[in-house]
Design goal:
The protein folds into three domains: about 135-340, Dbl homology (DH) domain (Dbl Homology Domain, Chain A); about 355-460, PH-domain like (Roll), CATH 2.30.29.30; about 470-535, 2-Layer Sandwich (Herpes Virus-1). It is built from 14 helices and 13 strands. The chain has helices spanning about 15-25, 40-45, 50-65, 105-125, 135-170, 180-185, 190-210, 220, 230-250, 255-265, 275, 280-295, 305-340, 440-470; strands at about 75, 95, 355-365, 370-380, 380-390, 395-405, 410, 420-425, 430-435, 510, 515, 525-530, 535. It has a seven-stranded antiparallel beta sheet with strand order 6-5-4-3-9-8-7. A hairpin with a 5-residue loop joins strand 12 and strand 13. The longest helix is centred in the N-terminal third of the chain and has 38 residues, at about 135-170.
Length: about 550
């Protein structure tokens, strides 16, 4: 000790003598067999070189019995051990060469294995031949889809029959509104519901339960064909039902309150009664589509082939009538959506209304030409100029102005500060509008011009029909049979000038003069002399 050169070691000023002693004790390797209460001077090596050799010997001895992947060993600075002083022992580092494996090597290997795992799995998956869906599995999926959609359909039928129909009938018995109105609206929905819920659905559920032994559905769908007459009746009455529903919703507050109360329930799924009433109209085409898909997958020699083809032939014939009704109601569904967006704006849900174009646009102020965000709904007979409302639910627009197509003009304008502008001028108001692009401007102008052109054509047809009518004096009305105006010669009522529509405004003929009129204008009767004084529809009696 006395011969060893002295070295001045800097000690941290923050270290207390007790802390320095603690560092010296913890940084020296201790023999597991030495007593815990050995004297302090026994832990201090007599010389730094000897202490280093002792540590290397201890490390080698310990390594012989260790099998762990990584064994980090503390290596101290040799200079800091001179003269037996461990003041700089705190400045140590784990050296790679003092380990069996580099630090964290096992972690790196695990990460590498994780990176290779997807590639290995992909190799394994590629080595397994892909199992294609068999034809039997495809047939089962189609049959199961038929079952699941049938369950949802029966739920909708039950809503119409047991909720809407039942509650309106209950209120009608209290003389709140005529019972016949309710029955005419829902037609034969109870019969349709009974057939599907008590016969067709149970049969499908039973068949799917025994599919492995009886894989066929054609024989079950053949049971449906005799009942398609019920759908024919429902589809024929659908136009009249929509008309009655609108009339009595506007006319009777109790009638409207019951419908709104049911529509607010969760079971309705935020859909209107009109939407739910479309389900029976759409169901028959759904059967046709599933059967066609089923027959494509069905082998020619399959036992179910004959029954499935026969069912498809009858169902497809019935579906043509339903598809026609569906096309007529698509426009009505869109009108219902706009009706809700506009906060139940009056006269929007009218089958004579046809939406041509809608979208955002900027309106230039008349005084300072500032641009304001607006929304347009262009119909075949009017333009709704609306202001957007910042609302997540309910009403989204407020109607500011209605401009009729009759007398409307559209012209392209030029503004240096505001490009892509055009002007819409009507009897009610003139608007200077700015589109988002030149293409958008041309699209709007084209839509306006075509709408105006079609409207003028219908007006000319209407006027020419009047010229061709043989004048019948009031004194001659009912004394001789008139010449009827053909349905295709007019597009609107010859009395109130409301446009005809197959859903809610159908064509009728006045038996006295032969004019083509709507239902409202032909709801008057009078005895006609040429018909043996029997009561006939006669619009002129009101005049």
């Amino acid at each position: 000790r006395e011969g060893a050169p002295l070295k001045q070691v800097s000690i941290s000023p923050n270290s207390s003598p007790a802390h320095k002693n603690y560092q010296r004790q913890t940084e020296q390797p201790t023999d597991s067999g030495s007593p815990a209460n050995s004297p302090r001077h026994a832990l201090k090596p007599p010389n730094g070189v000897l202490a280093q050799k002792k540590r290397e010997q201890d490390r080698n001895r310990d390594m012989d019995g260790i099998t762990h992947d990584t064994v980090p060993v503390v290596r101290t600075d040799r200079q800091g051990l001179l003269n037996g002083d461990a003041g700089d022992v705190a400045k140590r580092e784990i050296m790679d060469e003092d380990c069996v494996d580099p630090p964290h090597a096992h972690i790196e290997r695990a990460k590498e294995e994780e990176r290779k795992a997807p590639e290995q799995r992909e190799v394994v998956m590629n080595s397994i031949p892909e199992q294609k869906e068999t034809n039997e599995q495809k047939l089962y999926k189609i049959a199961n889809e038929l079952l699941q959609t049938e369950k949802a359909y029966v739920t909708r039928l039950n809503l119409l029959d047991q909720v809407f129909y039942a509650k309106l009938l209950e209120e009608a018995r209290k003389d709140a509104f005529p019972m016949d109105v309710v029955k005419n609206i829902f037609s034969n929905i109870s019969s349709i519901n009974t057939f599907h819920s008590q016969f067709l659905l149970p049969d499908l559920e039973k068949r799917m339960g025994e599919w492995t032994s009886t894989p066929r559905i054609g024989d079950i769908l053949q049971k449906l064909t005799p009942f398609l007459k019920m759908y024919a009746e429902y589809v024929r009455n659908f136009d009249h039902a929509m008309d009655l529903l609108k009339q009595w919703t506007d006319r009777s507050p109790p009638f409207k309150a019951i419908i709104l109360e049911i529509q607010s329930q969760e079971v309705c799924g935020s859909l209107t009664l009109q939407h739910h009433m479309l389900e029976p109209v759409q169901r028959v085409p759904r059967y046709e589509m599933l059967l066609k898909d089923y027959l494509k997958k069905l082998p020619q020699d399959h036992i179910d082939r004959r029954d499935a083809e026969k069912s498809l032939e009858i169902i497809a014939m019935a579906a043509t009538h339903s598809n026609s009704a569906i096309r007529k109601t698509e426009n009505l569904k869109k009108l219902l959506e706009i009706y809700e967006m506009l906060g139940e704006e009056e006269d929007v849900v009218n089958p004579s209304n046809e939406l041509i174009k809608e979208g955002h646009i900027l309106k230039l102020a008349a005084r300072n030409t500032s641009a304001m965000d607006r929304y347009l709904f262009l119909f075949n007979n009017m333009l709704l100029y609306c202001v957007p409302k910042f609302s997540l639910v309910g009403q989204k627009f407020t109607v500011r102005t209605r401009i009729g197509i009759d007398g409307m003009k559209v012209t392209e304008t030029y503004n240096e500060d505001y490009p892509h502008t055009f002007q819409v001028s009507g009897k009610e108001r003139t608007l200077e509008l700015q589109a988002s692009s030149e293409q958008d401007k041309e699209s709007w102008i084209k839509a306006f011009q075509e709408t105006i052109h079609i409207y003028l054509q219908k007006n000319e047809t209407f006027k020419s029909a009047f010229k061709d009518v043989e004048e019948v004096t009031i004194s001659e009305l009912g004394k001789r049979a008139p010449r009827w105006i053909r349905d295709n010669e007019v597009t609107m009522c010859m009395r109130c000038k409301e446009a005809f529509n197959a859903l809610m405004r159908r064509r009728h003929h006045c038996r006295a003069c032969g004019y083509v009129v709507c239902g409202k204008c032909s709801d008057y009767k009078a005895p006609l002399e040429y018909d043996g004084n029997r009561m006939n529809k006669d619009l002129h009696r009101k005049q």
